[in-house]
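Predict fold of Glyoxalase; 147 aa.
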Amino acid sequence: MVARRLPPVVSAGPTVTPEVNSYRHCDNVGMRIDRVVPNLLVTDLSRAVAEHTAVLGLEVLMDHGWIVTLGDEEGHQLSLMSHDASAAINPDVSVFVDDIGEALTRALRAGLEIVHPLTAEPWGVTRFFYRGCDGRIINVGTHTPLR
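Predicted 3D structure, encoded as tokens:
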């Protein structure tokens, strides 16, 4: 097989400043991402759970009454939520990490808006939310002992 040379990648988007570009690399030294879970905001939680379990074959892994996480044996997960129990804003995605302090430091260093402060929640998660440049809300958390 003859290797062929690919043309250079050309971006049709706006020019990225070096400051923003410096955050685009994957630097997880000192912090590991354990999982990423999309959070869908729904108006009828029980109906949404029934629909997604029927169509996707996922099972209920966690049910707090306001958020239900569905998943399978391979680790795929999807959360459905009616509202967030302790935050004034609903997250679009949850990213679980092994070092929440490092994640918060990185978010602050990046100049991101923290829209829910670092909080030890009673259901065994310590988390904070930040707003991404597109307005999406990212829930960054880690599992902690129940209070």
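Strands lie at 33-41, 59-63, 67-71, 77-81, 93-97, 113-120, 125-131, 137-143.
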